[in-house]
Amino acid sequence: MGRGDGTGRIVSPDDADDTGTRILHVDMDAFYAAVEVLDNPALKGRPIIIGGAEGRGVVSSASYEARRFGVRSAMPVGQALRLCPQAIVVPPHFDRYLALSRQVMGIFHSVTPLVEPLSIDEAFLDVHGARRLWGSPAEIARMLRSRVLAETGLTCSVGVAATKHVAKMASTISKPDGLLIVRADQTQAFLAARPVGALWGVGPKAAAALEGRGIHTVADILATPPGVLDRALGKAMGERVWHLARGIDAREVQTERIEKSVGHEETFHDDIADPAVLRTELRRLADRVGARLRANGWEAHTIALKLRFADFTTLSRSQTLPEPTAVSQRIGDAAWDLFAQIDLRMPVRLIGVRAENLRPAGGGPPALWDDDEDWRRVEEALDGARERFGRAAVTRATLLGGTRDVGALPTNPRPPRSHDH
Questions:
Q1: How far apart are CA 330 and CA 317, in angstroms?
Q2: What's the CA gap between 371 and 373, in Å, rounded?
Q3: Is the peptide bond before 176 cis (omega within 30 degrees of 0)?
């Protein structure tokens, strides 16, 4: 969910010049909330929060009507309801979101094979090679918006620019239901007036570091020596911001989806203080992470643990494994080790396991021996059983009993690989 609430929206006139552009960034508008309105028109125009029940969950998305009260993704539902008491809380229906995502991505692929999904509800398209068939980038953008609305009933916003970074910024500024075109020779002027936090990858902490040095707009970045940016942000980030502020972004649209991480987290109905219960939940989450890695042909070099206490203090810990793995037992063991290092000073509200630093399975040199051979054989059999009979068909004995999952979505959800073309 974007940080914008739809205020300050800027869109291009119908006759806008798209000279020098080739990249489209298409972003569905408040996707989860919009799907719920599509399925229940009585929700139209109402402030909607997509999240767990009983105020214990976390906001996955919100309608623009709710965002204008300050509701944001990853915010506790209880806090969101205090900001917007009249909001309607709707539990997420992830299968439905995936189905519509598949339909939208299919529309994109029917226009150009050069599609790079960023998440379930947004993608980059390189339409340079599609001009002869479909027209200019601006014409293609208008056609896509019309088709998405006609075929799914949902609206999207599109940024058209010479680079991925500027196209993404443009789509954000045009939301909701807008189109903003930045022709190539207007890139500098477009960027200069934007706040530093609008640059892709500049989060709240980085923005605060820049603003603390009097750097508030992209124009200010242009007037700042590179050394000052490096001291504020670190060398790698400082160099990246220096380039982005000048409209320099050589990244191409990548049609092969490269996962950066795979994770699951869970918010409990009631805060949990019992370490044994938390360890059981860690094992459950590790099993889900491992299954997703194996299903998508990945191994992870790094395992991370996330813990949120009752007072919303959040801790993250990670460890790099000697060898990359997709074995759930190994992932769970690493998560347990990380958990053992944390002082449980109060009950826990949320717990999560994430696999990071991914690589294709079997991509490294063969090991002399396989310590996980037995577990690998067991988990392959379990995967086969789950594929045939469903995820709940077989599980560890230690996980039997009532689930504490409150319908939390997988973190950074993406369409399944079968959606790729």
A1: 16
A2: 6
A3: yes
Domain limits of the chain? 17-192, 193-240, 261-414
pLDDT digits (tens, 9 = 90+) for 58-101: 788 999 999 999 998 878 888 899 999 999 999 989 889 999 99
Q: Are 417 and 296 in contact (CB under 8 A)?
A: yes
Tokens of 10: 């800027």
| List of residues 6+ apart from 259 with CB closer than 8 A | 296, 298, 358, 414
Topology (CATH) of 261-414: Dna Ligase; domain 1 (3.30.1490)
Contacts of 337 (CB under 8 A, 6+ apart): 319
Which run of H or of E encompasses 315? strand 314-325
CA distance 214 to 296: 45
pTM above 0.85, yes or no: no
Backbone torsions φ then ψ of 359, nearest 5 degrees: -150, 160
The alpha-helical segments, DSSP class H, found in 112-249 are: 131-134, 137-152, 164-174, 187-192, 204-211, 218-222, 226-233, 235-245
Count of C-beta atoms within a 10 Å radius of residue 275: 13
Q: Which amino acid, residue 15?
A: D
According to DSSP, residue 416 is labeled -
Fold exhibited by the domain 193-240:
DNA polymerase; domain 1 (1.10.150)
Cα–Cα distance, 265 to 286 (Å, whole number)? 10
Measure the CA–CA gap between 130 and 137, rounded to whole angstroms: 9
More confident residue, 197 or 371: 197
In tens, the pLDDT along 121-157 reads 999 999 999 999 999 999 999 999 999 999 999 999 9
String of DSSP letters for 233-286? H-HHHHHHHHHHHTT---PPP--S----EEEEEEEEEEEE--HHHHHHHHHHHH
d(CA 343, CA 330): 23
Write out the CATH class of domain 17-192.
Answer: alpha beta
Catalytic residues: 122
Judged by DSSP in three states, 34 sits in helix
Nearest Cα to 158, choosing from 67, 172, 249? 172
Would you call 56 helix, strand, or coil by DSSP? coil
Letter for the amino acid at 184? A
Q: Which residues pair with 78 in a beta bridge?
A: none
Describe the crossing of helices 31-39 and 94-111 by its angle, rounded to 10 degrees: 110
